[in-house]
Model the fold of this input.
Amino acid sequence: MVRAAGDRGVADLINTSSIAAQSIFPNFAVYSGTKAYVTHLSRHLRAELGPKNVRVSVIEPGIVGTELQSHVTDRGALAWLEGSKETMQWLTPQDVAETIGFLAALPPRVNLQQLTIMPTAQTS
Done:
């Protein structure tokens, strides 16, 4: 990344975390903990790599319609997921991809350290 930044003037490392890194979701403790780690690691990497023209950002999406839901086994979490489909329109993978593209297209002098993208109706 540092070499690429030297060649092009800037390089981007964009990590994907989750709103679960910032909020409390019963039955999602392990998932939330891993996402909090990704967010915190991204902050540290930004401090280390920013002076070398590597922009480090972390995107924290709310609920996104992916295959992740098919891996959930906790009944409470499954019930929450099913209920949320009735109260909100989930983000799509394309929504997240377009946001990542936005981050990478910013002028080299700009680094958004952390960006949260949420379904409009998701409250936490």
